[in-house]
Amino acid sequence: MKKYKIIFIAGVLFILSAYAVFGETVTFEQNLHFGLKNDLGVTRLQQFLTEQGVYGGPINGNFFSLTLAAVKKFQENNGIVPVSGFFGVKSRETANQKISADPKAQLTKRIADLNKQLEALQIQLTTLLATQISQVTATTTTSVITTPIATTTLSTLPNPFNSALKIEQEYSSITLSRYTDVLLTEFKFSAVESIAITRLRLKNNGTLSDANLVSLRLVASKNDTILATVDSPVNGIIDFKLTADLSKSDKGLMVSGNSYYVMATIITPNTLLKPKIRLDVESASDVSAFDYNDLNRVANITSNNSFPIVGPTISLF
Which of these three, 47, 80, 115, is where a domain ends? Predict the structure, then answer.
């Protein structure tokens, strides 16, 4: 897997290098909105918002929470109303005016930003190569050293313990304009302590049948990493189960301080009615939470949450 990641980063380095030399300014001709994925216009928008100093997330073409917040900040800074996060006519005109006002300065700044990205990717590539080399010679030593740490240092702490974990719904009710790669809900998990979630069970309390909702994915908003998948609900239940993996970012788990969204593909229902989808967390038992630093310690999350946590209503067109 690391081999392919190294090849991918090397390819990105080549593309960014070429763009830094031959880059050109661009204007915005189409409206952009929350939920777009792998979109070239969103990639350009993220680059522009980075240049404006309102965006610090990944340049990946996905219009989710970070990009939405940055568009709102851009709208606030430039007196655009309403501050909705929708990158429409007013926002595009303002952005295009800024680009046209000083295209040379914009291009210079873009090249400087790309050079920074090049440096970061070069460091990442060097680190990956070094890690791959070291793993060949030190695999057995690493496994012996890392195994016993958690149980000896934290065994005297209370188990279970009361956690301040707060689960908040971040997505709004919408009517869909497409049926593929549809964003259904997004949750934010916040807590004073570091909490890991290994299971999230959702109930579809809408009217769309299980057979019409497929390829469900639980995704980390900060980097669009897929953490868990479910083929289709069973009796309306979508049960995402995660397994800790120390080699992955955040151990491959949901972690407090971050947001996560659910995407799916919808099979067009054979009915004149317009079915709806609403994914709810019905009770505390639908969330398996633990101390991030000791996954044997169970977190009680009832003190700071009121169940059910009701999701947005997604209407089919």
Answer: 115
pTM for the model: 0.59
Domain range enclosing 283: 161-315
Is there a domain that residue 205 lies in? yes
User: What is the enclosing helix (H) or strand (E) of 63?
Assistant: none
Task: Classify the C-alpha dihedral 107-112-113-119 as positive or negative.
Answer: positive
Residue whose pair of structure tokens reads 């190294």 in the numeric block: 6
Residue 66 domain flag:
yes
Same domain, 178 and 282: yes
Instruction: Tell me the C-alpha to C-alpha distance, in Å, between residue 120 and each of 42, 124, 267, 297.
Output: 22, 6, 41, 36
What are the mean pLDDT values of the chain's consecutive 10-residue runs (317 residues total)?
53 53 67 89 93 91 91 95 91 91 62 66 69 59 46 65 93 85 92 95 95 93 91 96 93 95 90 90 96 94 94 90
Of 285, 288, 102, 268, which is closest to residue 178 (Cα–Cα)?
A: 268
User: How many independent structural domains does the chain possess?
Assistant: 2
Report CA-CA distances (Å) from 75 to 69, 86, 204, 231.
Answer: 10, 9, 35, 39
Q: In terms of domains, do 185 and 248 share one?
A: yes
Q: What are phi and psi of 282, to 5 degrees?
A: -80, -30
